[in-house]
Specification:
The protein is α/β, with parallel strands linked by helices. The protein has a single domain, classed as Rossmann fold (3-Layer(aba) Sandwich), CATH 3.40.50. The chain has a six-stranded mixed β-sheet with strand order 7-6-5-8-9-10, with helices on both faces. Helix 3 links the parallel strand 5 and strand 6. The longest helix has 18 residues.
Amino acid sequence: MTYDDSALTLALHLLQIKAVKLSPNAPFTWASGLKSPIYCDNRVTLSYPVVRTFIRQEFVNLLMRHYSKPDVIVGVATGGIAHGALVAQELGLPFAYVRSEKKSHGMQNQIEGVVNPGQSVVVIEDLVSTGKSSLAAIDALREVGAEVKGMLAIFTYQMKVAAENFEAKQCPLFTLCNYETLIHKAIEENYVTEQDRASLKEWRKDPQAWSDKFQDVLK
């Protein structure tokens, strides 16, 4: 398999600064209760100027490669806000962001900033798992009449359900790095062993079954 050089570079950055942690034998527990061999917190990247700048420039390159320049850059709260603002600044474009839900007070906004009907937008996200929360932002933008060109994200777990959800919403998704690339780099750099590869691949194919199996082992 051929891996993109920029994605490999980002994978190494994420591993080095511990924005992504891998622990196939002592998995993490997600908020949903799911057991997982990977934990990703891309907010950590904001504390490292070299990594932050690399992500900004790769987002700009990816955007210009796949979309024409939009009218507005929109971030998804909260992880996509800072990165989206950096991309907007680099391109000299307006910026707005989408909350997970409408505020219960004031103007009850879900979209913060100015997005007018008919304006084209590219949405910036930090992480895609199932795609549910990311696509909720797409729905909110379409409801106000925005033309959503697509979404860019730092990282995706490459879950099958996410691909199906984005296809159903007819929203193109492009990412700077993905699970396959990260695992390849993690093995190459000795963050995990070659023996861990099968378990890590099994998790991506069916996270729930992998979690259930691990739970059974602990009993």
